[in-house]
Amino acid sequence: MAKTDNPKLDAYRAKRNPGQTPEPFGRLHIPATDSLFVVQQHAARHLHFDLRLEHRGVLKSWAVPKGLSNDPADKRLAMATEDHPLDYADFEGEIPPGAYGAGHVIVWDRGHYEPLKDMEEGLAAGKLLFNLHGRKLHGRFTLVRLKTRDSSGQEWLCIKEQDGYADSENKFSNTSVLSGLTLQQRANPAPKARAVRRLAHKLSDAEAARARAPKPMLAKTSEAHNRRGWVWELKYDGYRVLACKDDQGVRLHTRNGHLITDRFPEICQVLTHLPVEHFVIDGEVVVHDTAGRPDFNLMQQRARSLSAHQISVAAITSPATYYCFDLIQCAGRDLTACTLLERKSLLRSLLPDKSALTYSEHVVEQGRKTFAAAEAMGIEGVVGKLAASPYRSGRSGEWVKARHQRTADLVVVGWSPAQRNPQDMGSLALAEYRGGVLTYAGHAGSGLGQALRARLLKKHKSLSRKTPTVGDLPAALKTTHWWRASLVVEVAFSEYTASGHLRHPSILRLRDDKPAAECISHFDDPSAAPTPAPAPRDPVTITNPDKVFFPAPDFRKADLVRYYRQVARWMLPYLADRPIVLTRFPDGVDGKSFYQRDAPDYVPNWLRRETLWSESTEREVDYFIVQNEEDLAYLANMGTLPIHMWHSRIAQIDRPDWCVLDLDPKDAPFDDVITLANAIGSLCDEVDLPAFVKTSGASGLHVLMPLDGQLDHNQARTLGELLARVIVQRHPEIATVERLVRARKGRVYVDFMQNGHGRLIVAPFAVRAEPAASVSMPLGWHEVKRGLHNHNFHIGNAVARLRRRDADPNHRLLREQADLARVLALLAEHL
């Protein structure tokens, strides 16, 4: 690497002798991100912690004697010290006796930080505010400089701000996030290494001279169960990776044997520090989103980082985690014949507590509860393993997987042009192997966003062929451009049709890590899935970002766009593939507004539109279809406040996903709305019908019952009317189905007429044109109680609420199924 010098490090170098200490001296070029942070634990004369924040090519440093606290009540003294070089963030080891700062050092935590105010101004003013995103530390912290008599400016206070990560207990591991060693073990790592070797040799006599990555053990699709002798792990959405270490160093192999060692330096760094010189670990590499859930799109972005600079920066700003779930070799021993629990026990003793390597915990026998917990956390599913199973390459019934959504990996065998632009892709022709024969499985266009289309079109020349690679094709595929069978995509779908085609397919992502030959059919797999959202496009430019949209709370257009970006991952599953209608307020909530059903001609081509017949206007309408974060940002930039959506999706437009009861109070007390919402929830429990509730964002509440496409719009309205009339019978003093306001006489209108073809409901999380900038917020039933009001949830607090909860309480609305024949029979008994 190139030599460099930095006068900011003069004070650091003046205190140290490069011939005496192993500490780095900042003479090498390290890629700058201005977002790296590290906390080192240092056993010098006095044990202390050093907080370091990257800024303008150096690490600004503070010695914090008691360490950082998660308790906002703690005000920890932090003494400013000399700037340190960027490569000090990797330093762990011993500063020898006689040298400045003599003692052992470990990297106690490391990650990236997010300045919430300008750093240069904050350093001058004596107040820094920032978010930490580390392996241990998370959330908002502040550093405040104390005014002292000598005006040295060295004394600061480090304080945890009140947020969702604040915690008075301060339960932190004192192990390194690099080596997994404590300071004491760092001083003498031999005992831990001996313990691991001793256990490995006790478990197996079979020698393994070199660390070789075998073909991985694979799971069959199944349902979660509670059978004796099984354990259950979470299924992580990432890349399957086998990590090897021997005298040749550390290597990372994909499931197909490709080397990706250079792509994940933060993982390799920790693997290098593990206390034995030989192992093969099996696991999954993932990248987490801001809520801490594995995100495959982020994972692919990491994997596509090519240059050394890109990789170094990504390792700090978008760090990967390696979830380790099996140990195949260790300390010169082959462990494949050992039981799974024996291998996992040894693996647990090998790994650090908190680092880029994470031990994959398991639950004994309780597969169904683990599956439900995974769903609540937004994790894609679970893997069940026979506790006594050896490690066998290939697919085995001793490992099974259960997913919350039905997905399959399919081969792309061609594409059909878009209707509006014959040069662009409209859908992909998909196939899979059935009985060893590549077989057509249908076309999919949903989820085919602009970025993905652009990537695929670049591959057209290299994959193009004149004839299809599959037979028995529908006659309508005359315009398809055929491809060689080599590219693989993952697709979500509801079920197979009788002819073996995918019903309601939606493209999730490219599978660069999987060969076409492994796309084996799951034609008779009984699981099901909702349509997910596709990947984002290029960023939208905000016009007039400072225009005031909500005067009283002083929320501006930039705040509105930012809110929709932040809430997108919770909102998009409801909007995907669904026609929407806008109400636009170009000058904010106090300005003029207009209703927009038709997408105007000037809307960019990448924003999807679908033409449907509108019964109310008796003409064809070009509806917006929101597919990703950039679509939401574009609509917000147009001054959109309420976003209303259809009850059904384009792929099944005559089959609504839910039945809704809209509780409209007008002049009735809101406590009556709360009473009736709970009454509807109780009635649904009585008839075995799942029910979910959300605020309207304006004046009422919405109760939604999932239909899973089992009814048409008229039947859904009938179901709603039956439910409404039972509620009015039970609560005639506060409930009515009278549409005329004057006929309601101060009672809550239980509106079932919102069900029907082309009828609309305000989308969950949509911002309303209300003075408080309130949003339509999904609720847990325990929240429907006295004190609830629509204005409790607004763009200033909604995202923080969702991050604290770590899940949308209504996320199962699009997945739940009910026996509607039984529901109607039970409901009839109440009339």
Report strand %: 25-35%
| Helix vs. strand class | alpha+beta
> How many helices?
18
- Unreliable spans: 525-537
The strand line-up of the biggest sheet is 1-2-3-4-9-8-7-6
Query: Quick check: average pLDDT?
Result: 88
Describe the protein's topology.
Elements: H1 10-14, E1 36-43, E2 47-55, E3 58-64, E4 75-84, E5 93-95, E6 103-115, H2 119-125, E7 127-134, E8 138-145, E9 155-160, H3 183-187, H4 190-203, E10 217-221, E11 230-235, E12 239-246, E13 249-254, H5 265-273, E14 279-287, H6 296-303, H7 308-317, E15 320-330, E16 333-334, H8 340-350, E17 357-359, E18 363-364, H9 367-377, E19 381-386, E20 394-403, E21 407-417, E22 425-434, E23 437-444, H10 450-458, H11 460-463, E24 464-465, E25 481-492, E26 495-496, E27 502-503, E28 506-510, E29 548-550, E30 555-556, H12 557-575, E31 579-584, E32 594-596, E33 609-614, E34 619-625, H13 629-637, E35 640-646, E36 658-664, H14 670-686, E37 692-695, E38 701-706, H15 713-730, E39 735-736, H16 741-744, E40 748-751, E41 760-762, E42 778-779, H17 798-805, H18 820-828
Parallel strand pairs: 10-20, 15-17, 39-40
Antiparallel strand pairs: 1-2, 1-6, 2-3, 3-4, 4-9, 5-6, 6-7, 7-8, 8-9, 11-18, 11-19, 12-13, 12-14, 14-15, 15-16, 19-20, 21-22, 21-25, 22-23, 24-25, 25-28, 26-27, 29-30, 31-32, 31-34, 31-35, 33-34, 35-41, 36-38, 36-40, 37-38, 37-42
Helix pairs in contact: 4-8, 12-13, 14-15
